[in-house]
Design brief:
Layout lengths: L4 H27 L1 H12 L2 H21 L6 H20 L23 H9 L3 H12 L4 H8 L3 H20 L1
Helix pairs in contact: 1-3, 2-3, 2-4, 3-4, 4-7, 6-8, 7-8
C-alpha cells in the first residue's frame, strides 16, 4: 500500500459520515419541527424567538457536525443543542419560566381529572425546572427514559427518580 492512500481513504470516510449526519439532521428538523418548536417555545414565550432558537440550533449543529469525532445518539445530541440554545436565549432575555404549548393529543391525561390547558400550564409552572423538563420530554414529546437521560445529560436512574418525584408532586397538586 502506498503511503498517501490511507489518509485519503480516512478523509473520504469522514466526509461521507459528515454528509450522512447532515442528512440525519435535516430529517430530524423536517419530521420533528412541531416538537422542536414546542420545546423552544417553552423557554422563550414568543413565537418568533422559538423559531429563532430552532434555526440557531440547526446552524450550531451543522457547525458541530464538522468538529465532532463521533456522535453516539444523534437524536439526543441535537435535542441537547436545542435545549442549550433555548436556555441561552432565555438567560439573555431574562424572562420568567415558559408558558407550555400543549399538543392536541391528551391521551396521557386520561387517568387525570378533566383539566383545561390553562390550568395544566399553571400547575406545571409549580414544578421545578429539571423535573418539568423531564415531564415535558416524556409525556408531551414521547421520549424514552434513556433518551431523556442523554438529552439532559443525566444518569438514567436520576431521570427515573426525578420523574417519580415530579409525578407525585403533580398528583398532590391535583388532589387539592
Amino acid at each position: 500500500m502506498q503511503k498517501g492512500v490511507l489518509p485519503i481513504f480516512t478523509t473520504y470516510k469522514r466526509r461521507r459520515a459528515i454528509e450522512q449526519q447532515k442528512a440525519q439532521l435535516e430529517k430530524i428538523v423536517e419530521e420533528e419541527s412541531a416538537s422542536l418548536y414546542r420545546i423552544a417555545f417553552s423557554y422563550t414565550h414568543q413565537k418568533e424567538d422559538a423559531l429563532d432558537v430552532v434555526q440557531d440550533s440547526f446552524q450550531k449543529a451543522l457547525v458541530q457536525i464538522n468538529k465532532a469525532k463521533s456522535i453516539d445518539d444523534f437524536h439526543a445530541w441535537f435535542y441537547r443543542i436545542l435545549i442549550n440554545t433555548a436556555t441561552d436565549q432565555w438567560r439573555k432575555k431574562k424572562r420568567s419560566p415558559a408558558e407550555l404549548q400543549l399538543p392536541e393529543n391528551r391521551e396521557w391525561m386520561a387517568h387525570l381529572p378533566e383539566i383545561s390547558q390553562v390550568e395544566l400550564q399553571s400547575i406545571l409552572e409549580l414544578i421545578e425546572s429539571p423535573e418539568k423538563e423531564i415531564l415535558i420530554l416524556k409525556f408531551f414529546e414521547g421520549f424514552r427514559l434513556k433518551e431523556i437521560a442523554e438529552i439532559l445529560e443525566l444518569n438514567e436512574n436520576t431521570v427515573k427518580t426525578k420523574m417519580y418525584r415530579s409525578l407525585n408532586q403533580l398528583r398532590k397538586i391535583l388532589e387539592k
